[in-house]
Amino acid sequence: MNKVFACIGAMQSSAAVCDSASWASKRLDAPLVLLHVLDRSDHVTEVDLSGNIGLGSREHLLDELATLDEKRGRLAIEAGKAMLDAAAERARNSGVEAPAQMQRHGDLAESLGELEADIRLLVLGLHSTHSHRPGMPVGGHVESVIRTMHRPILVIPGEFQPPRSLMLAFDGSATTLKGVEMLAASPLFRGLPCHLVMVGADTAEHRAALDGARKTLEKAGFDVIAVLKSGDVEPVLHAYQAENGIDLMVMGAYGHSRIRQLLVGSTTRNMLNNTRTPLLLLR
User: Is residue 65 part of a domain?
Assistant: First the structure.
């Protein structure tokens, strides 16, 4: 569990994914792996015409379809390798000495699950083919990966610039308490100003949890601004981020229980749909 994996594909955010993964690789002093997963549904249209009237006896047509299918697959593999080569060159130009390349076939979430033991940080684009606009529904590949992976995931909506500040969306849950500890121990954001933002009622319990988290981060050397805000979670967090010019947000992702998944999952999805900046999701 020591590598930064970047998911590279035919998406407009692939350059930003490569740039952000390269940045993280250098900050963490961890090897970078550029991964392209070739989903068969992306390049193959299987048509079984053997049972259709008149076609079952026309074997040459079926042979031509099979040949076309094979050619599509071969071209998709070559295109994937070309994207990996371009990403590797971009990573080397940004200072990563020896980025590794990997191409796999199958479902993205399943492929990442098989590689999970080696992943320290996963970086992927928010959409598989389109550029991101706030309010645009998140790609299905992102949701499936987030729900199945148990590693930090850095989601990139568009262009990437090295962050100058970050915000941790804190709710006092076990996930965000673990997130505070992870931030404190990791060199990824060391030296950056950190805003610790909790949205909820102004209670002694919330104040105590927020103060404890602030002290943990300050002990690790962070310059921390801790605030407790009231209102609806997603709009309050986005408003605070915009008002303070924060480059990157950190938050917990979907919960494991059915009830928590409904509550936390909807917030995660809304944050992903409306984010304008990179979002680091913790599990």
Answer: no
